[in-house]
Design brief:
Blueprint (H helix, E strand, L loop, with lengths): L7 H19 L4 E2 L1 H8 L3 H9 L5 E2 L3 E3 H11 L6 E6 L3 H8 L2 H4 L2 E7 L9 E2 L2 E4 L1 H11 L3 E4 L6 H10 L4 E4 L12 E4 L2 H16 L16
Parallel strand pairs: 4-5, 4-8, 5-7, 8-9, 9-10
Antiparallel strand pairs: 1-3, 2-3, 6-7
Length: 225
């Protein structure tokens, strides 16, 4: 397989395809067309075919895609066929909630530990995760080969913590902190700001309240289950 730069929206849609195909597999559905898969995601079938054609020929013209084979191929593309160790930095309300989220384990992410600087939290257990100090975190990162981290720390410490993580070998950071993180050059960074989605909904509702009808959109976000 040739490796090349894949647009981020395509990768996000692959994740959606994966979830839908898993549900179809559980229901015993053997074949799905690009039209049906597109309808399930809320996009045009041409976008589905273009996305999948970037990685090879998966379907049969006039027949569709074998659900199990396509699911397995997308799982391999997304690395879902193996476990990925992760640490969560910040054992406050948000970090604790993220640690308790069962979807991480279901999608192949193994939360090794939570990291915090508060002496009262270090050594405690949240769900089944131990809160550790930075010194212990460094050992765990090396021991488990952790390359990904989730940030749930106060805004004023995000940048410094991100740099500290990359110094320890972290290559990808998912930032839930209330600030846009400009990641270190060696790290891949994804900023998650839930208020953006609330603003999107609020904008639509505001238009409705003022008697305006926004243009219909089939774009769907990635659901959390």
């Amino acid at each position: 397989m040739k490796f090349f730069k894949v647009p981020e929206p395509t990768i996000m849609r692959l994740s959606l395809y994966s979830r839908i195909l898993e549900q179809l597999e559980e229901r015993g559905v053997p074949i799905i067309s690009s039209v049906e898969l597109g309808d399930a995601v809320g996009i045009n079938s041409g976008v589905v075919r273009k996305d999948l054609s970037m990685f090879g020929e998966f379907g049969v013209r006039g027949v569709g895609y074998n659900v199990r084979e396509l699911r397995d191929n997308i799982r391999k593309l997304l690395g879902q066929d193996r476990n990925w160790p992760v640490i969560i930095v910040g054992a406050g309300h948000l970090g604790s909630s993220l640690a308790a989220y069962p979807g991480f384990r279901q999608r192949g992410f193994d939360v090794v530990a939570l990291v915090d600087t508060d002496p009262e939290k270090i050594g405690s257990t949240i769900i089944d995760k131990i809160v550790v100090s930075w010194e212990e975190a460094e050992k765990l990162i090396k021991e488990h080969g952790v390359r990904m981290a989730i940030l749930a720390v106060p805004a004023d410490s995000v940048q410094a913590v991100a740099q500290q993580l990359t110094d320890l070998g972290i290559e990808a950071i998912l930032n839930f902190s209330p600030i846009i993180l400009k990641g270190p050059s060696k790290a891949q960074v994804q900023n998650v700001d839930l208020t953006v989605y609330f603003d999107l909904m609020r904008f639509t509702q505001n238009l409705n309240d003022n008697g305006l009808r926004p243009q219909a959109s089939n774009v769907r976000g990635i659901a959390v289950r």
